[in-house]
Amino acid sequence: MKVSDILRVKGGTLFTAKPDEPLAHAVQMMSEHDIGSLVVMEHGDLVGMLTFREVIQKIVANGGSIGGTLVRSAMDDAPLTCTMETEMDEVRRMMLDRHARYMPVMDKRMLMGVISFYDVARAVVDSQNFENKMLKAYIRDWPGQEANT
Fold it and tell me: Global pTM?
């Protein structure tokens, strides 16, 4: 299974932020849309990733306040990325190694979508459920042994 399979099922809604917008605005958008991340874009290019992890780290560093902080100062400016052709086993390994919950999907410099650890887990479960159904159907239809007469 490849990343393209997950994005096909997930759909293509993307939420983005600009690096020089207030962090408070980005957090409000994340809350309103019930999402855990924003892709940070500047001049059509991916420049970072903002997740609630970075937001919380910035709030703690600011003594419990967002204040006038900009997205640029909180975002991960070197996010882990993958392509549409990346295999799911590789995505899982990459996400686990970096403790990444969200990963932008790129086609060269074009953002194609974002997959989450939840998306990956759901794809694995769906794949296993399908495989289990196929195995059960195979066993149920197992050819009977002819009686020796």
Answer: 0.78
In which band, very low, low, confident or very high, does the pLDDT at 129 lie, cut at 50, 70 and 90?
low
β strands within 69-141, DSSP E:
82-83, 102-107, 110-116
- How many CB atoms neighbour CB 109 within 10 A? 8
Q: 79 and 68 in contact (C-beta within 8 Å)? A: no
Rounded Cα–Cα distance for residues 146 and 149 (Å)? 9
Give CA separation, 35 vs 26, 28, 84, 96, 109, in Å: 11, 10, 22, 20, 23
Q: Per residue in 73-90, pLDDT tens?
A: 999 999 999 999 999 889
Place of tokens 């086609």: 107
∠ Cα 16 109 22 (to 5°): 25
- The topology under which CATH files domain 3-139 is CBS-domain (3.10.580)
Q: What is the number of helices (H) and of strands (E) in the chain?
A: 6, 6
